[in-house]
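If your schedule permits, I should be very grateful for your opinion on a structural question. I would ask you to consider whether the tokens describe a fold that such a sequence might reasonably adopt. Thank you for your consideration; the sequence and its tokens are set out here.
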Amino acid sequence: MEDDPLFLDDDEANTPLTAEEREQLIPSYITLRHELNEAEQINIGEGLRWAMSRKRNVLDQDLLNELHRRMFGDVWRWTGQYRTTPRNIGVDAYRIATDVRHIVDDARYWVEHEAYSPDEIAVRFSHRLVAIHPFPNGNGRFSRLVGDLLARQLQRPPFSWGRSNLIDAGETRARYVAALRAADNHEIKLLLEFARS
């Protein structure tokens, strides 16, 4: 599959998929990265509509898996299932379920004890999810939507995340990645600022 046109334009904005994961693509018409991005974006809209259709507690591990499935389930067969393969980012696959459970528990504690402002709770939760990188693909988009949903749950407006499509490379994405790296080093301020920029 190395000469598959869909994957010729992989870049740092896209987590590389294994050959087995790529074979799980559902729409047969997709041959190029932009077609994949368009199909995923339509599906993400459906996931958002599902999430907003009634009050849901974002701080629930099963709901998170279902949200990922709703966001990407028309495009990939493995959606909503934790990855089983290594990545150049994220935790080892065997740690994913435990680490997701820990961040859900941490966020519940932060909310209950008002450990941080509502915005900071939502951004920290989003950051920890993307740092775990639980799914084969879509982790950034998933974690940002989860951050938005948690912000709403905490009576705050959704984030703007730089007011740009972060799938495409560019200056805004570079700022986002720099803010994530700072947060990896326990400096959350840049990511908080970016989320509301």
